[in-house]
Amino acid sequence: MATIKQILMGITVATSVSVLPNHSVSAASLINFEPVDGKFPDGSLAVDNMPITDQFSSLGVTFGIDRNLDGLPDAGLFPLLEAVGPDSVAGFQSTKGGGNDTAAPGFEERLGSFFLQGFSKEANDISLLISYNSPTKAASGEIWDIDGRPGGRFEQWEVQALGSDLSVIDSIVSPAGTFPLETAPLEASPWFWSFDRPQKDIHAIRLVYTGNTNGLVGLAFDNFSALAVEGSEPEPTPVPEPTSAIGLLIFGAVAYRFRKGK
Ligand SMILES: [Ca+2]
Ligand SMILES: [Ca+2]
Ligand SMILES: [Ca+2]
Ligand SMILES: [Ca+2]
Predict the structure, then answer these.
(1) What confidence score (pLDDT) does residue 155 get?
(2) Which of 58, 81, 127, 164 has most Cβ atoms within 10 angstroms of its Cβ?
(3) How far is the CA of 139 from the centre of ligand 4 (A)?
(4) Which sign does the torsion angle of CA 226, 227, 231, 237 carry?
(5) What is the pLDDT of residues 140-191, one digit of tens each?
(6) Ligand 2 center to residue 212 CA distance, Å?
(7) Per CATH, which fold does 27-231 belong to?
(8) How many Cα neighbours within 13 Å face the side chain of 13?
């Protein structure tokens, strides 16, 4: 007769199979531009105003600027790392945070210490391009501080997903920034966007400015989830509860008796 130990061994095997990890998408694909021990994944030191290009290539993406909108990064143009808080270069003005590059109250942790900004404050220098080594099905990210201006002027963005031929296959348009800034919901705050396609056909993502302000346009970009919509990652398969282990024990005992009775 099968001993209790043998039955329990069977349960152990069943249990270890049922909790095989399902970590194909992990939080590691979230790029928040926060260095770990001062460094980015490629080992480079994080320095304010440094160009961001291939520091995150180990996560399957590279960053560039696509001024001529051909889907390819333009030589000599690149987005720049920007440190939170007032310093020599400002990424965005904040009336709610009390100074340049400062998040509205409640969003400080979300912004962290660094974010990404465009090459300059000209509209065509801030078409951020994120190129994939291999296509993705989904992605998400945040554009911060979409401002309004007096006289009905506003900042606005179109986030574009580019297909295999680098044409636009999907797009999302942001809300228009509102004025006055003191009561504007997007002032010094994030606007979250996401794509979730039926198949892996996103080869690049591009942010194009569609607002109607004249000059002095800023881009502040953060919390890019390269391979999945942030927060939608699959949960690890739960460990079977004790009741199901008992069920297995009963099943094992019944199966043994059935075999023995044959
Ligand atoms: Ca950040
Ligand atoms: Ca280009
Ligand atoms: Ca700054
Ligand atoms: Ca602002």
Answers:
(1) 96
(2) 127
(3) 25
(4) negative
(5) 999 999 999 999 999 999 999 999 999 999 999 999 999 999 899 999 999 9
(6) 22
(7) Jelly Rolls (2.60.120)
(8) 6
